[in-house]
């Protein structure tokens, strides 16, 4: 019988620590597949964050340094400078990267540090119970904005790809969604492209993956995918914002 698919060897058993239907699990599997396909398991250093994304370090079988909340970009800066032979990447939630870690994120991107930042945007603080994140949309309810986010009171949602696209140094900036197979395939190709840029020592890449949080959104996994299509993907347009690799080969 032809073997069509196996679990990547880069994932530790028993597997997911996430809630049922949480797309963190899918994001982690894509990254694990890319690392296996590149044959770099022993050369990879994950800079883990705090939040549900922090659980990724429990399932990905690579070397890992765990940063405190928001400090992943600073830790990754040290890691990629001290160990330039390593594939260094961060895996961060929107609270971790865009709130407490915003300064580190922007300054590392501005310096063009040689690591990949992967942002999992579920428009909430998942792990701590669904508080408002910088990415929470206007009108979206959270435990800290039970009547919905109001621009006059809490400001507007922050679009990290668009903000990082204002900087000169980053080489690759893209936003993908994990809600359906065609987009998932694009997301995997984008992660691979970013990792290839890092391995070639060409600098900073930013990959945002649109995700969900069925538990704190108060929705079933299927309803959460509908919510993404009706709400979050309209607020956060998908696409490649910058790819200097392509521009150089034109
Ligand atoms: C210095 C510090 N402040 C606050 C916290 C509490 N905390 C833990 S995770 C988190 C936010 C998680 O949200 P996000 O980064 O979006 O990840 P998600 O769980 O949604 O994947 C917060 C505020 C902490 N651990 N350390
Ligand atoms: S709380 Fe939300 S983000 Fe965290 S594992 Fe559960 S569904 Fe995923
Ligand atoms: Mg989040």
Q: What does it look like?
A:
The chain is of the alpha/beta class and 250 residues long. The protein has one domain: Thiamin diphosphate (ThDP)-binding fold, Pyr/PP domains (Rossmann fold), CATH 3.40.50.970. It has eleven helices and seven strands. A seven-stranded mixed β-sheet has the order 2-1-3-4-6-5-7, with helices on both faces. Helix 2 links the parallel strand 1 and strand 2. Helix 1 (24-38) packs across helix 8 and helix 4 packs across helix 5 (102-111). The termini are far apart. The model has no long low-confidence stretch (mean pLDDT 96). Residues 50-53, 69, 93-96, 120, 122, 124-128, 133 line the site of thiamine diphosphate.
The CATH H-level superfamily is: Thiamin diphosphate (ThDP)-binding fold, Pyr/PP domains
Helices and strands, in order, run as HEHEHEHHEHHEHEHHEH
Structural class: alpha/beta
**How many distinct beta strands?**
7
Overall outline:
globular
How far is the first residue's CA from the last residue's CA?
44 Å
Total of helices: 11
Oligomer: single chain
List the ligand species.
thiamine diphosphate, iron/sulfur cluster, magnesium ion
What's the alpha carbon Rg, rounded to whole Å?
A: 17 Å
CATH architecture annotation: 3-Layer(aba) Sandwich
Number of domains: 1
Strand fraction: 15-25%
CATH classification class: Alpha Beta
Helix content: 40-55%
Biggest pleated-sheet summary: 7 strands, mixed
What is the averaged pLDDT score?
A: 96
CATH topology: Rossmann fold
What low-confidence regions span 5 or more consecutive residues with pLDDT below 50? none
């Amino acid at each position: 019988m032809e073997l069509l698919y196996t679990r990547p060897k880069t994932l530790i058993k028993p597997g997911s620590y996430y809630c049922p239907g949480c797309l963190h699990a899918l994001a982690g599997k894509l990254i694990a597949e890319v690392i296996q396909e590149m044959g770099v398991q022993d050369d990879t250093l994950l800079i883990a964050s705090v939040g549900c994304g922090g659980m990724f370090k429990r399932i990905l079988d690579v070397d890992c340094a765990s940063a405190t909340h928001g400090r992943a970009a600073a830790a990754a800066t040290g890691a990629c400078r001290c160990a330039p032979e390593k594939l260094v990447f961060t895996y961060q939630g929107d609270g971790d990267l865009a709130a407490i870690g915003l300064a580190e994120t922007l300054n590392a991107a501005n310096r063009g540090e040689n690591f990949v930042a992967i942002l999992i945007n579920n428009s909430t603080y998942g792990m701590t119970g669904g508080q408002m994140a910088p990415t929470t949309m206007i009108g979206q309810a959270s435990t800290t904005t039970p009547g919905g986010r109001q621009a006059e009171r809490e400001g507007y949602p922050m679009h990290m790809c668009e903000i990082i696209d204002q900087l000169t140094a980053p080489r690759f900036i893209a936003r993908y969604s994990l809600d359906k197979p065609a987009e998932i395939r694009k997301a995997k190709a984008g992660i691979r492209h970013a990792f290839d840029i890092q391995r070639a020592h060409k600098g900073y890449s930013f990959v945002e993956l649109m995700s969900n949080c069925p538990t704190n959104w108060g929705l079933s996994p299927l309803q959460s995918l509908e919510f993404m299509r009706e709400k979050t993907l309209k607020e956060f347009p998908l696409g490649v914002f910058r790819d200097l690799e392509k521009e150089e080969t034109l």
